Amino acid sequence: MKKILACLMFCLSFLPYLALACDVCESKQPKVLRGITHGSGPESDFDYAIIVFAIVVVTVTLYLSVKYLVKPNEDKIGHIKNITVEQY
């Protein structure tokens, strides 16, 4: 178990360095994304619109999933949540 934990810690210590962009990719990136990602980056304003839309969708989905997991507001006795909670 100690060997696995040591190996995991060693591998995770390099994660920040693997996530950063290299010098060649950094020079090709727009000023906003410089040093964050690899590749050429967004090439038009439409690409930025797609990225913003995806961020909005993911944020709303995350908010709603946490909201309904924490407090689902189902009071009916026959609801699947109440049946599952009663069994445990």
Give a written overview of the molecule.
The radius of gyration is 22 Å and the shape is flat. The longest helix is centred in the middle third of the chain and has 26 residues. Helices cover 65% and strands 0% of the residues. It is mainly alpha-helical and 88 residues long.
What is the gist of this entry?
The chain is mostly helical. Helices cover 65% and strands 0% of the residues.
Beta content comes to under 5%
The total beta strand count reads: 0
* Rounded mean pLDDT score: 76
Structural class: mainly alpha
Give, in order, the helices and strands: HHHHH
Termini separation comes to 31 Å
Topology:
Elements: H1 2-13, H2 15-19, H3 23-28, H4 45-70, H5 80-87
Which features characterize this protein?
about 90 residues; 5 helices; flat
